[in-house]
């Protein structure tokens, strides 16, 4: 039985059956004990009432037959016997069964396949001593028949009560489980429609069911957020793949066209051939830059090892390398005298700083200035400023997307992946990156704020 309603009915019916069985056994035993006590009391009273008659039989030699006594004994199916030692002196009532000598008091014996109850009392007569005994015997057939009848009636009543109880439990469980069926229908509807924005009612039913509905709604909310994140990630991946294909196709197409022209026209003037080769070389360099940027993004998505490092040393090394690459640009570094301890991945931090500096050089004025500052404290900050045109407010979020290019940059150098690498490494290091306007140089100011981890 798989349904909760069926299991609940079966379980409660089993409990009810045990209760009824126990009650029936106790009732039958109580009735049996009461009847046996009544029978024993009747045997004692019969012996007591017959005592005077038995004594008179010894003393006055009364005849054996006494109609009134026989009628009473026959009505109760009881036999009365007076014996002296092993000799029977007087018998009346129903014929007593053959049995061994009975002990004084109450006893039960079986004769001829029938169980009997007997009461034996000695006659207190000084002349006879303890040899004279009065025996009152009755069969237990009627008592056992009444007990069997009582047991059958109790069994029938128990079965009827059990059937009624099972039906009542089944109907009551339907009412009790009605809120659970509503919850099941609601969840089935959500699953069929695949609508994770829906919620099940959590304000009806017993407390346990309301708690279950609330937990289910929390799970739906988490699944909805997860599905939304997955959709955004999928869309971002599709957009990234399309943008990557487009960005890679452009330099490859240009190189292919240049090589095809050189192959078809081997007699071109040397000066023109040199210009075409130089253009192809520039496109090849752009292609390598794109591939390097894609590789940096892929490498940054891994979980690199983290170690304690001096952020000031990383910043100083990055500024020194940029000075060598761009000797015409004036770099200013404002670094603290002491070490700035930070837990991070040195190659990722170096890649982030190199891309910030390259971005400042490419978008600043030719031969302009780039300023780098590092501040120590509870949250270390690295700021990179340039003297270019800056970034408009509406573009300050978009610049961190892969292959994002602003109208002001036009077809300038760069792969469009540098700031995406910056944002990625900032996330991996638990840092935030923001862009605003530089008050000192007038261009863009990129600020990376770290949460110190010692």
List strands and helices in order, with pairings.
Blueprint: H1 4-59, H2 67-75, E1 79-84, E2 87-93, E3 105-111, E4 114-122, E5 132-139, H3 141-176, H4 178-193, H5 207-264, H6 270-300, E6 307-310, H7 311-325, E7 330-334, E8 341-344, H8 346-363, E9 369-375, E10 381-386, H9 418-428, E11 432-437, E12 444-449
Parallel strand pairs: 7-9
Antiparallel strand pairs: 1-2, 1-5, 3-4, 4-5, 6-8, 9-10, 10-12, 11-12
Helix pairs in contact: 1-3, 5-6, 6-9, 7-8, 8-9
Descriptors:
454 residues, alpha+beta, Beta-Lactamase, Helix Hairpins, Heat Shock Protein 90, 3 domains, five-stranded mixed sheet, 9 helices, 55% helix, 17% strand, rod-shaped
Q: How would you describe this structure to a colleague?
A:
This protein has 454 residues and is of the alpha+beta class. The chain folds into three domains: 4-171, Beta-Lactamase (2-Layer Sandwich); 208-301, Helix Hairpins (Orthogonal Bundle), CATH 1.10.287; 303-449, Histidine kinase-like ATPase, C-terminal domain (Heat Shock Protein 90), CATH 3.30.565. Helix content is 55%, strand content 17%. It is built from nine helices and twelve strands. A five-stranded antiparallel sheet has the order 2-1-5-4-3. It is found in: Cell membrane.
What is the count of β-strands?
12
H/E series, N to C? HHEEEEEHHHHEHEEHEEHEE
What is the level 1 CATH name of the largest domain?
A: Alpha Beta
Distance between the termini: 60 Å
Query: So what's the oligomer here?
Result: single chain
Roughly what fraction of the amino acids lie in strands?
15-25%
**Strand order in space, largest sheet:** 2-1-5-4-3
Give helix % range.
55-70%
Mean pLDDT score: 80
Query: In angstroms, what is the radius of gyration?
Result: 55 Å
CATH architecture tag of the largest domain? 2-Layer Sandwich
Pfam families: HAMP, HATPase_c, HisKA
Subcellular location: Cell membrane
Main location: membrane
Domain Histidine kinase: 243-454
């Amino acid at each position: 039985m798989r349904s909760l309603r069926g299991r609940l009915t079966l379980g409660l019916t089993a409990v009810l059956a045990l209760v009824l069985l126990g009650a029936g056994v106790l009732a039958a035993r109580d009735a049996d004990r009461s009847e046996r006590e009544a029978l024993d009391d009747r045997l004692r009273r019969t012996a007591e009432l017959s005592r005077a008659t038995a004594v008179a039989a010894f003393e006055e030699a009364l005849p054996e037959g006494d109609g009134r006594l026989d009628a009473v004994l026959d009505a109760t199916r009881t036999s009365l016997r007076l014996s002296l030692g092993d000799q029977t002196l007087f018998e009346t009532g129903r014929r007593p069964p053959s049995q061994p000598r009975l002990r004084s008091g109450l006893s039960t014996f079986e004769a001829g396949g029938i169980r009997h109850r007997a009461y034996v009392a000695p006659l207190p007569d000084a002349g006879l001593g303890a040899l004279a005994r009065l025996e009152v015997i009755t069969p237990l057939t009627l008592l056992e028949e009444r007990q069997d009848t009582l047991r059958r009636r109790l069994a029938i009543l128990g079965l009827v009560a059990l059937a009624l109880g099972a039906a009542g439990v089944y109907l009551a469980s339907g009412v009790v489980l009605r809120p659970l069926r509503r919850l099941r229908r609601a969840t089935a509807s959500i699953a069929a429609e695949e609508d994770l924005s829906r919620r099940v009612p959590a304000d009806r039913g017993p407390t346990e069911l309301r708690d279950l509905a609330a937990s289910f709604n929390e799970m739906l909310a988490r699944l909805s957020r997860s599905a939304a994140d997955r959709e955004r990630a999928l869309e971002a991946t599709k957009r990234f793949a399309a943008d990557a294909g487009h960005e890679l196709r452009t330099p490859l197409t240009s190189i292919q066209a240049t090589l095809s022209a050189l192959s078809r026209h081997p007699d071109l003037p040397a000066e023109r051939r040199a210009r075409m080769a130089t253009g192809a070389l520039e496109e090849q360099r752009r292609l390598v830059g794109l591939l390097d940027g894609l590789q940096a993004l892929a490498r940054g998505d891994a979980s690199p090892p983290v170690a304690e490092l001096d952020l000031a040393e990383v910043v100083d090394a990055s500024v020194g390398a940029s000075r060598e690459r761009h000797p015409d640009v004036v770099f200013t570094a404002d670094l603290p005298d002491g070490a700035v301890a930070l837990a991070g991945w040195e190659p990722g931090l170096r890649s982030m700083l190199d891309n910030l500096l390259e971005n400042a050089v490419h978008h600043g004025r030719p031969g302009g200035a780039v300023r780098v500052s590092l501040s120590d404290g509870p949250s270390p900050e690295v700021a990179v400023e340039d003297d270019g045109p800056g970034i408009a407010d509406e573009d300050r979020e978009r610049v961190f997307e892969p292959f994002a290019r602003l109208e002001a940059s036009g077809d300038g150098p760069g792969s469009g992946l540098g700031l995406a690498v910056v944002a990625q490494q900032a996330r991996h290091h638990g840092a935030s990156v923001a862009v605003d306007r530089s008050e000192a140089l007038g261009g863009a100011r990129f600020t990376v704020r770290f949460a110190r981890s010692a």
